[in-house]
Write a structure and sequence with these properties.
By secondary structure, the chain is of the alpha/beta class. Helix content is about 45%, strand content about 15%. The chain has 7 helices and 4 strands, in the order E-H-E-H-E-H-E-H-H-H-H. The chain has a 4-stranded parallel β-sheet with strand order 2-1-3-4, sandwiched between helices. Strand 1, helix 1 and strand 2 form a beta-alpha-beta unit. It is globular, with a radius of gyration of 18 Å.
Length: about 140
Amino acid sequence: MTEKKILVASHGHLASGLQSSIQILTGMGDHLQVIDAYVDDSDYTQQISQFVAAVRDQPAIIFTDLQGGSVNQKVVLAVAGHSNIMVVTQMNLAIILAVLLDNEPLTAAHLDELINQSQVLRLVVAPPEDDAKGNENSFFG
């Protein structure tokens, strides 16, 4: 598996929280660079510029939290003219895991497939209290 160049950028500690979850689930948290924006007075845009410069012409991906949010806007401006860097916004744990664990070459078409697979949301309704007491099988089975 070729190591992909991945940056996860968010408002607050969402990016490092996702990295922590990925580390727990896969042991691959160190394969991500993260930016936790607005948690201190530092200028996070320098970290974006460093990532863009470091990937050069290699395929890379940047995940952001909110489409049109300030972090996403800074990322989009930084990658202008870099067709090798794809930006995915409205990120979730599922899409980052899918990209990280996937063995296919990182192309826009394949990334779109992974995004579609990762967008499935489900409402999980807990069973009535009487059904759940002392019987895990009734909930999970």
